[in-house]
Amino acid sequence: MQVLYFAWLRERVGAASEEIDPGDAATARDLVERLVARDPRYAAAFADMAAVRVAVDQEMCDLDTPIAGAREIAFFPPVTGG
Amino acid sequence: MTVSVQREDFDIAAEIARLTAADADIGAVVSFTGLVRQMTADGPITAMELEHYPGMTERALEEIAAEAEARWPLQGVRVIHRYGPLKPGERIVLVLTASRHRQAAFEAAEFLMDYLKTRAPFWKKEDHAGNARWVDAGDADDSAVARWKR
């Protein structure tokens, strides 16, 4: 699945997007745990999970939403538009 | 078209004219414009960069506009949100609401802005003379949107 990063999450990960095999990660939170274990860049990006928001297939949801079948997951800080 | 996400500036008077021409029953038009501030607690802003999530931004704004039209009797809604590099004083966002009487237009405009501030995927980066920092989301916006919960 496509994983997208925005704002300072994107800066810390060092990429705007990447194709990732979720493996057996059932939720967005599971996926983050796997990424954090993989590389220190992710540990820095996801250090404060309270500051992380997620959208699955372009719908805002929460970290415990199931991600099976999703094409696109995006991680970002709380929005600051307007 | 109700929602636009674009780099370019917008013309408020032209947008109001277009909105009111579309329906003869409009008695009230409310307009909100969001601007890039010139001064913050961290000093003057020299530039701002607005990042967004292409695809999701349009969709989120359309959902918010549809919710406003479902909750209030409106003759029209228009939302324009810019992205990209902006300078202090420039226009960022426009919300227009039109209705027969003013209460619906006023309330819907507030609702649209409160939801936009908490749900539309944009992120602001402020530059203070070479010192760039991402703006933090405020608690005030979460409190504001809570009052619209049913």
What does this structure look like?
The complex is a heterodimer of chains A (82) and B (150). By secondary structure, chain A is of the alpha+beta class. Chain A has one domain: Beta-grasp domain (Ubiquitin-like (UB roll), Roll), CATH 3.10.20.30. Chain A is 29% helix and 23% strand. Chain A has three helices and five strands. Chain A has helices spanning 7-13, 28-38, 40-45; strands at residues 2-5, 17-19, 53-56, 59-61, 72-76. The model of chain A has no long low-confidence stretch (mean pLDDT 95). Chain B has 150 residues and is α+β, with helices and mostly antiparallel strands. Chain B has a single domain, classed as Aldehyde Oxidoreductase, domain 3 (Alpha-Beta Complex). Chain B has helices at residues 12-21, 56-71, 102-119, 139-146; strands spanning 3-6, 28-35, 39-40, 43-44, 47-52, 76-82, 84-86, 91-99, 122-128, 131-134. In chain B, strand 3 (39-40) and strand 4 form a beta hairpin. In chain B, helix 2 runs antiparallel to helix 3. Chain B is globular and about 50 Å long. Chain B starts with a strand and ends with a helix.
